[in-house]
Amino acid sequence: MITFEGVTHRFGETTALAGIDLTLADHELCILLGPSGSGKSTLLRLVNRLLEATAGRVLVDGREVRSYRPEALRRTIGYVIQNVGLFPHWKVRENVATVPRLLGWEPARISSRVEEVLDLVGLPARTYGGRYPHELSGGEAQRVGVARALASDPPILLLDEPFSAVDPLGRHRLQEEFLAIQRRLRKTVVFVTHDVDEAVRLGDRIALLKDGHLVQYDRTEVLLEAPANPFVSDFLGQDRTLKRLSRVPASALARPGAPSAGAALALAEDLDLRLVLSHFLESGTDIVPLKNRQDRITGWLHRGDLEAWARAGGSAR
Amino acid sequence: MAEALSPRIDPVLAVLALAGAGSAFLVPFYQFAPNRIVGGTDWYLVPASLAAALGLLVGWVGIGAFACLPPSLRRAAAARWAWLLVPVPVLAAVAGAARVSWALAGNDAVARVTLGPGFWLTLLGALVAGIALPSGTLVRALGVLPGLGLVAAGLARGWFDALSLVREARSLGSAFGTEFARHLLLTGGAVMAGTVLGLALGLAAHRSPGWRLGGFFTLNFLQTVPSLALFGLLILPLAWLSARFPVLRAMGIKGIGPAPALIALSLYAALPIARNSLTALDEMPQAVLEAGRGMGMSEWQLGLGVVVPLVWPAVLAGIRIATVQTVGNTVVAALIGAGGLGTFIFQGLGQTAMDLVLLGTLPVVALALAADQILGALSRPKGARP
Fold first, then answer.
1. How far is CA B242 from the centre of its chain?
2. How far, rounded to the nearest angstrom, does the alpha carbon of residue B257 sit from its chain's CA centroid?
């Protein structure tokens, strides 16, 4: 659990954070969202003491971060930054081994762990372990960055706009992969971004910041359904309903039914509702069969159900 | 396409090979002089030593044949062994020198053989061929070191005794070794001091804009002052300091001699090192430092494990430039009584004894080439640049 109590941070004259109170629950992915200059990166860096709060307290699991030696604290917290920052003179394998080596692990344990996390991010050590960072694409480098942060299996992961330097297609894949990893590992993740779509796609909760103040902190669905003020609704955009739909798989609204249609017409049941709506609009139909990974029809989705869900505020989830 | 673009025959090597082979007949290789003062008569390689001429031809024809190979073969990995052809004409020319020296041996204590234009052109040609041919550190070492050993052995056994260079060296006695060592000492000391100074200035300039402006302005300005003038400028303050503080005098610090030379040479050596280390530090990606810190590296671990290895290749390149430059600059230091190989050069100029000048110049050239090769081999990067 990460707790901010009345945290203020000033850079000289400018106030980056003004009295933030915020508690982040274990095993959740919390997004720090806001326009540039809102203080979201500053808040993140207070956790691993790359910055120190001017006033207030930052606690990890109830203990003040100030009571740790900074290096010791940082070795227990995974950290990923936008420009990756891989060490250019070390191979991928050595980069990933950074924190375990700092922690003084046995070489055998390090090398087996390195292979494990590289597999986890989809870069088999046999192929990628011996490469230098300049031999990687942007997406691959950021995967290595994530693997490096996960190497010592820290309970907390801090990510500072990790995917924003990657092209849109690659970014989407990285987000999907990261979400899959997070579903397995269930780390306590603090994720800074200015990209609303990314926030909605990934976040269990979103903390929206503006000019160093916390504007709203809620579960992502709640934030989309009930923005606290005009700034929040403006920042989230006019298409909040579509964004809500994008977080729910088609299977959530499926009705059971006999398979009378061919699997060829069916949509994958894990497709999100926004894409199902798009399908309804394009095809002009009102009903569509859903299929699972094995191409078996598992049920039906009615357009009316989808529209009702959207109007009702998404209590079906 | 690539085949069409790259020339069928390597023009540089082909021309070198033709000129080299032709030189055996067309250019005098040695000159015979009855004493140190009188001008000599020319000797061509072909009547002088048929064996040497044959060796020379074999070497150059081999290089010419390599130049005519299909380009794909010339680029093959095994092609670098062709570099072993480079020392062949040189060794042939040296063998020829031994042959003519031997012909003169015991004849006359003052008659001498001077190395002529053909000999020097062969050296020059081999140098160019050595750069133009593909090679590796190992092949170069294999090609050069045995030849150097052979020449050293020959010198020791008196094969070259009638060569004017050897005569001059003999008449210098132990002075040659002393000044050679002195030259090494001055160069080494200046490069070491310049490295410390350059690194410190690079770091200071990286941290503070004031140092960046002031420090580099000073070094750049000094670089424009001719070395001889700088030596001269240092004489006065050092002489004053030496007179004022007996401790300094006891340490041998005076207005002339090694002290001002070392100071001036160190200042010259510092500039390329400072410039390179500043550039490398400035170009250190900030993300790398932030990632290292964020993962819990201490400042020491970050410095030694990340910053030093990333900056080192550039610093070493600076040291390489500074060393080659200092080897040459040290020659001038002889004028203010610091000693070194420049002593012979200026003596020789004074006496119009070109062989004495050569005796000072050749080791300087050899030292510069050797320093360049050795430091170059050390600075080959691991293939890891950001």
1. 34
2. 24
B128 interfaces chain A, CB cutoff of 8 Å: no
Please give the radius of gyration of chain A, using alpha carbons only, rounded to the nearest integer.
Answer: 22
- The tokens of A138 are what? 């942007």
Predicted-complex ipTM score? 0.83
CA distance A79 to A82: 10
* Residue B379 predicted with pLDDT over 50: yes
- The reported pLDDT for the residue numbered A260 is 63
Q: Which of B55-59, B75-79, B92-96, B345-349 is least confident?
A: B75-79
The amino acid at B166: V
Contact B256, B228 (CB under 8 A): no
Q: Give A23-70 as a 3 state SS string.
A: EECCCCEEEEECCCCCCHHHHHHHHCCCCCCCEEEEEECCEEHHHCCH
Tokens in use for A277? 């709506």
Per DSSP bridges, beta strands A188-193 and A156-160 are parallel
Nearest CA in chain B to A44: B294
Hey, are the CB atoms on B295 and A102 less than 8 Å from each other?
A: yes
User: Looking at residue B384, what is its pLDDT?
Assistant: 43
The shortest C-alpha distance from A183 to chain B (Å) reads 24
Single-letter code of the amino acid located at A46: L
The pTM is what? 0.76
Cβ neighbours of B295 in A, within 8 Å? 74-75, 79, 98-99, 102, 148-149
User: Tens of pLDDT along B171-198?
Assistant: 888 888 899 999 999 999 999 999 999 9
pLDDT averaged over 10-residue windows placed end to end, chain A, 317 residues: 94 90 95 93 95 94 93 94 91 96 95 95 94 93 94 95 88 91 94 94 95 94 90 90 88 78 75 90 88 84 89 58
At B225, the amino acid letter reads V
Phi-psi domain of B171 (left: phi exceeds 0; alpha: psi -120 through 50; beta: other): alpha
Contact between chains at B382 and A89 (C-beta distance less than 8 A):
yes
What are B346's two structure tokens? 């200026």
* Separation CA B63–CA B92 (nearest Å): 14
Q: Give the whole-angstrom CA distance, residue B386 versus residue B374.
A: 25
pLDDT of the residue at A314? 52
From the centroid of its chain, how far is CA A90?
28
| Nearest residue on chain A to B386, alpha-carbon basis | A88
- Which residue of chain B has the CA closest to A74? B296
- Nearest of B349, B336, B23 to residue B186 by alpha carbon: B336
Q: What is the mean pLDDT of residues B271-297?
A: 92
Chain A residue with minimum CA distance to B289: A85
What pLDDT score was predicted for residue B383?
47
Chain A residues with beta carbon closer than 8 angstroms to that of B290: 50, 81, 85
Q: What whole-number distance in Å separates Cα of residue B247 and Cα of residue B253?
A: 9
